[in-house]
């Protein structure tokens, strides 16, 4: 039996803690681990029994036994490492980028090296419920698609300490953290892309993200058409034709997870995403299994995966949502086709900041002249 590629894992958070045992369960060897500090890398390496660990990026990317790189780190670092990994000749599976510009640079790198794997790890695409839902939509179970309705509810995503998830510019906030993957999933299921916050072909999509709800994690995706509807509640799929009096269970996901997983990782990752990670790693194993070279891979087992192109699209939709929120008007989804002028972007950002500051400083005018107040502070709540 051909040997699977050695894996280099970037990250020491909950996702990495879950990913390492899942990779090993499918026959992969984790050859190297990267952490943002030597201490963090050593702590997880000792816990997971990983021989080589480091806080230097190149030490992992240039490791002779690493042919597949899994990047589970804060979004601001994703572009830099993924682009460099592709340039060195490594296959890459990573999380989304922090900005559209970063996503565009990742797309550019993937186009230079089309023979290498370059996937964005939206694990929802690998869940059997959504694989089956996509098939049934293509088979016209619901008829012509009319409405997509997605709902995600959970407790706050914020931690006690300030970090990247608190900062919009670093890819933080619920809209970027989970909203991007919902946007990508709806496009994957229907084959339609958003134009002006409305899916192409006249499909209306409604996405509700609520990160102020304690209790059980809720994840529901419904697609309604002219002939019926399909709804995925968690990892189970239900459907109902217009002619039926009640819905039917179409697929129940009985996958048991947790065996061999550490205690700290799974409790921070919703069960739905845990199952998605299991299915994604299984697909990766099937993709590399039986290949003549450890860097070659079969596209078929991972055909449902999101590409770097998909990553750019989902980030572009999120950008349009943010512009629409600021302007109060419909905004077109604009996908970058060339890298923008960095100086122009800086000037626009400074101009927006100056206008906000001016409005704040002049909001308290009185007889004694304008009342100077502290500069405005943007507070990123967990409900967007």
Quick structural overview:
With 384 residues, this protein is an alpha/beta fold. 38% of the residues lie in helices and 17% in strands. The protein is globular and about 60 Å long.
Strand content: 15-25%
Strand line-up across the major sheet: 3-2-1-4-5-6-13
Low-confidence stretches: 355-384
How many extended strands?
A: 13
> What proportion of the residues is helical, as a percent range?
25-40%
Structural class by SSE content:
alpha/beta
Query: Mind describing the biggest β-sheet?
Result: 7 strands, mixed
What Rg do the Cα atoms give?
22 Å
* Order of secondary-structure elements: EHEHEHEHEHEHEHEEEEEHHEHH
End-to-end distance: 48 Å
Estimate the mean pLDDT confidence.
87
- In DSSP terms (H or I, runs of 4 or more residues), the helix count works out at 11
The backbone outline, from C-alpha atoms, is globular
Please provide a written account of the structure.
Strands 3-2-1-4-5-6-13 form a seven-stranded mixed sheet, with helices on both faces. A six-stranded mixed sheet has the order 8-7-9-10-11-12, covered by helices on one side. The chain has helices at 14-25, 38-48, 57-61, 75-88, 100-112, 128-138, 174-190, 264-268, 271-288, 308-327, 342-361, and strands at residues 6-10, 29-34, 52-54, 68-71, 91-94, 118-120, 145-153, 204-210, 218-225, 228-233, 236-241, 248-251, 306-307. It starts with 5 loop residues before the first strand and ends in a 23-residue tail after the last helix. It has eleven helices and 13 strands. The protein has 384 residues and is of the alpha/beta class. The longest helix is centred in the last third of the chain and has 20 residues, at 308-327.
